[in-house]
């Protein structure tokens, strides 16, 4: 092992090694990182806090704002909202305007960080460590 600087050492709990000049990577573990969050039904329900985008009641289904049968994107964050079954059935194969229904919310694409919050099983960013909460702002 070549040493760049014998003053630099790497310490473990019980051992001490001179810091190497070159570190050879034997195995590379790729950690997937996505800048955009893939669409999912569960994600839409979480994003909308399980509230129906039309009446505000408890939502158990996903409504495609522009129905897929009419060219609406089936897996778009912007074309989907959480909906209760009665609203979803009432809207059926129509746009909200045609069905005389008004969206209470504006659909948006959640940030990847938001997914992290959900994955950690917390409901409020405030319950996260400050350094993580700050990255969600
Ligand atoms: Zn509803």
From TrEMBL:
Domain of life (superkingdom): Bacteria
Coiled coil location: none
The keyword Nuclease appears for this protein: yes
Domain HNH nuclease, first and last residues per copy: 39-89
GO molecular function: endonuclease activity
UniProt keyword Hydrolase, yes or no: yes
Alphabetical keyword list: Endonuclease, Hydrolase, Nuclease
Protein name: HNH endonuclease
The species this protein was found in: Phytoactinopolyspora alkaliphila
Origin organism lineage: Bacteria, Bacillati, Actinomycetota, Actinomycetes, Jiangellales
